Amino acid sequence: MTFDEVQIISDDVKMVGQKEKEKQEKWDRHFLNLCLQMCKMSKDPSTQVGCVIVGPDLEIRSTGFNGFPRGVSDDSRLHDRDCKLQHIVHAEMNAICNAARVGVPLKGCTLYICATDNGGHTWGGAPCMNCTKHVIQAGIREVVCYPFKDTLSKWGDEIRQAHKIFQKTGGVLI
Ligand SMILES: [Zn+2]
Fold first, then answer.
1. Ligand 1 mean position, distance from CA 132 (Å)
2. How much distance in Å is there from the Cα of 64 to the middle of ligand 1?
3. Host H or E run for residue 164
4. What is the Å distance from ligand 1's center to 59 Cα?
5. Among the options 25, 92, 142, 158, which is catalytic?
6. How far is the CA of 28 from the centre of ligand 1 (A)?
């Protein structure tokens, strides 16, 4: 085999790698778009979060959005911030619980998530600390989200801390 032939093979490998990457990015965009659709189901007046959990063969295993537990009505409690935060189930937790409800395994899955607000902004909505602990325990190994909306709020610090823990346990955040 000549040096040129080696180059050609190596370029072919690079092309296959590039195609795989482009294919994965296309699927990532698709699942993040589905997360945006899930956001529309949320009744939260300030932040709507959508989540899709996908298996290794790109099959959807579960979905969720932030909202009150099943059976709790979407009433004035949604507009009382403290009450809302106490009652609401985050989108990631709802997706994990929805899978548990019907016995769908999430080990080795990828979790997609995005958040929107009434100002038309879309951002990462990466899992908070509580959700991250459950994401890890459910066996989810990868989280894909839009760029993180950096904020000095309580959530910003907590989410940064949650990223570190997820990555320390071998999780991948994209
Ligand atoms: Zn959360």
1. 7
2. 12
3. helix 154-168
4. 23
5. 92
6. 21
* Predicted model pTM: 0.85
Query: Is 164:129 a contact under the CB 8 Å cutoff?
Result: no
CA-atom Rg of the chain in angstroms: 19
Q: Known catalytic residue: 92? A: yes
- Amino acid at residue number 47: T
In angstroms, what CA-CA distances link 141 with 76, 171, 174? Answer: 37, 5, 11
Record the tokens describing residue 169, joined without a space.
């346990």
pLDDT tens digit sequence for 37-95: 999 999 999 899 999 999 999 999 999 999 999 988 888 888 888 888 888 999 999 99
Q: What would the pLDDT profile of 100-118 be if each residue is shown by its tens digit?
A: 999 999 999 999 999 998 7
